[in-house]
Amino acid sequence: MASGIHHITLITRNVQANVDFYVGFLGLRLVKRTGGYEDATQLHLFYGDAAATPGSLITFLVWEDGSLGRVGYGQPSEISLAITPEAIGFWLTRALQHNVATTGPAQEFGEPVLRLKDPDGVIVKLVGTSAVKNAAPWTGDGISGADAIQRIRGATVLTEQPQATCTFLESYFGYSVGERTDTIVRMVSASGDCVDVRDATGFWSSAPGTGTIDHIAFRAPDIARIQKTYDRLVKDGSDATAMHDRKYFYSIYVREPGGTLFEMATDGPGMLIDEPPETLGTKLFIPPHFAEETENLKVMLPQFGLPGEDRFIYRELPFVHRVYTPDQAGDLTLVLLHGSDGNETMLLPLAANAAALATLIGLRGRSTEEGIGRWFRRFGPLSFDQQDIRAEADALAGFIEGAVEAYHLDLQRTVFLGYSNGANMLVATMLLHPGAIRNAVLLRAMNVLEETPRVDLSDARILMVNGEHDLFGAQAPDLEALLQQSGADLTVERVHAGHETGQHDIDAVRQWIAATLDQEA
């Protein structure tokens, strides 16, 4: 009978560092890459053994450059992975070779334990144990079957209600009380894995975010077992969710009395439902209910390389940014500045449809007034913080200078595309730093500077796309006149639209690039 842990899900803010640690250092197999089932713009990675066996799966929700979480009560605090006791020396040596800091080995409940931290700061314990075994460990890159990670050993849960948490694990997930210390009760499953329930009374509360463990999922043999458990939970007053179809398993979620999120998941259908064993984890899947957006989502999800594969090396620059490189990239680059309430991925689909072979760099504005992402502060619909505009324009000019050096941008073959607030940022930057931007696409733009300097933009080629029914469209003629007076090579397109973007913008951008830049290639 299925019992014990099915998988553990964590949150990372850097997908490449995460892959390098869990595949490159720990030697786990990447067994699935998919868009999130609640939010398909969020990448979800699954690591496990050779056969993606339940009980071996460590999964990550990717919040690229997301807010940091805080470990505290109401949340798991660490995960542990089983190795053979004889492999402790191997992993000490490997950690030294990979410059991974370790503490230990120390004895915990009679087992030797090495403590590590992953790139997000999550504690990962390698536990020498014979309590759990695996017939299909993933080997390679200098890791033999005898030294490889076997499966999940367990996790530690922080709670202010240790007795209630233990009872919950015993009543609904089949765990029984094992050994204990002054502050920890070890709950053990029939499969041999464990959940250490730690009394965190007086500790601070947890906060979700990157660098934290989101939930622990426990195994169920089939849907009937999940339904039976769900019925019991609801009858007993727990706020369990209805059953979810996650394609690879069916599951329910519930918070235990101490606040930690638990899941119960079926062993089947399993990770082999859409990939053969030989190619597990090599293809990106989009959840079926987001199928119509598949091509757009593939552009928005972060790219990474497995060990030995090519990968893009990000550099520290003034703005958080996301790079998308198509399979057959040309020499054109589009730098994208989102509108209000957007982020660095917002314009990636539009740009990819307008310039399929271009490398795309989406930037994230740094102003978050009104609780939304913007490029500079505003006081009202047409009133803006002039000091903030100038400071952020300076920062954008610095980003461009840094990207030219770090990413070898050719400014003659780089188009800066901005929408709404992002387009306004581009206008301000061109006026305050003439020459920094040679090619620009302005979607629904206006001039936000109260004092406009006289500049020479004769080396700039600009496409303005204005919506005929745009509520802010009355500001466009003044900007058109300003850019023409500055000597810019200006093309103006008016589309049957309001302030929103659509296919008409894609067509206009594609045609302008073909007429203006493709003839130079």
Topology:
Layout: E1 5-12, H1 15-25, E2 29-35, E3 43-48, E4 57-62, E5 75-83, H2 88-97, E6 103-108, E7 111-117, E8 123-128, E9 151-159, H3 162-173, E10 176-180, E11 184-188, E12 194-199, E13 213-220, H4 223-235, E14 244-245, E15 249-255, E16 261-269, E17 284-285, H5 294-300, E18 321-324, E19 333-337, H6 348-354, E20 359-363, E21 378-380, E22 383-384, H7 386-407, E23 414-419, H8 421-432, E24 439-443, E25 461-467, H9 476-485, E26 489-495, H10 503-516
Parallel strand pairs: 1-4, 2-17, 5-8, 9-12, 13-16, 19-20, 19-23, 23-24, 24-25, 25-26
Antiparallel strand pairs: 1-13, 2-3, 3-4, 5-9, 6-7, 7-8, 10-11, 11-12, 14-15, 15-16, 18-20, 21-22
Helix pairs in contact: 5-6, 6-10, 7-8
Descriptors:
2,3-Dihydroxybiphenyl 1,2-Dioxygenase, domain 1, 521 residues, Rossmann fold, 26 strands
Structural features, described:
The chain has 521 residues and is of the alpha/beta class. The chain has two domains: 5-290, 2,3-Dihydroxybiphenyl 1,2-Dioxygenase, domain 1 (Roll); 315-520, Rossmann fold. 23% of the residues lie in helices and 29% in strands. It has ten helices and 26 strands. The chain has helices spanning 15-25, 88-97, 162-173, 223-235, 294-300, 348-354, 386-407, 421-432, 476-485, 503-516, and strands spanning 5-12, 29-35, 43-48, 57-62, 75-83, 103-108, 111-117, 123-128, 151-159, 176-180, 184-188, 194-199, 213-220, 244-245, 249-255, 261-269, 284-285, 321-324, 333-337, 359-363, 378-380, 383-384, 414-419, 439-443, 461-467, 489-495. The strands form four sheets. The chain has a nine-stranded mixed beta sheet, covered by helices on one side. It has an eight-stranded mixed beta sheet with strand order 6-7-8-5-9-12-11-10, covered by helices on one side. The radius of gyration is 27 Å and the shape is elongated. The mean pLDDT is 96. Pfam families: Glyoxalase. Residues 4-129, 151-267 form the VOC domain. This is Phospholipase/carboxylesterase.
